[in-house]
Amino acid sequence: MAFPAxxxxxxxxxxxxxxxxxxxxxxxxxxxxxxxxxxAQTAKLDALFADLATADERQAVRIxxxxxxxxxxxxxxxxxxxxxxxxxxxxxxxYEVAIQHLTALTDHAPEFAEGWNALAxxxxxxxxxxxxxxxxxxxxxxNPRHFGALSGxxxxxxxxxxxxxxxxxxxxxxxxxxxxxxxxxxxxxLEEKAAGQAL
Length: 199
Hints:
Ycf3, 2 domains
């Protein structure tokens, strides 16, 4: 399925080539069709996040996996392949190649939040904190519930020696996903450190 930018281009082309009544019908159909997958995914994700809020540890692992699976569906096999190749390159430690694949993905699918999140991760693993932060911001603008992006931002803030800001970001991630063990551990560590400094 086409992404918003591609849909807009298709709509403009149809509008220019068709007589007036057909142009209106084409525009309405494109708007309706473009909203269906987003609404369906949002409803499914809403249900998953509602379950996640009250899940026990074992349930949370399964639900988190389901959420990541939903986030990783771009709607385009080509874009999904770029995401897969970028992730595979990261697993192999080839961050430059990962950045190339994921940059191509975000160039072609700028509304796909997971593309930006994966690119932020590749930049972080490559030691490029500035670009990583920029892409985390893009991820969160598109998907404010992205606990993975928030967690990653917390890690970066810790590396930049901004513990108070990191703590605030970690707490925001936990408000979305209360069972993130690494984040729970980070919060405990930072709180204990702050308490020790206060003494």
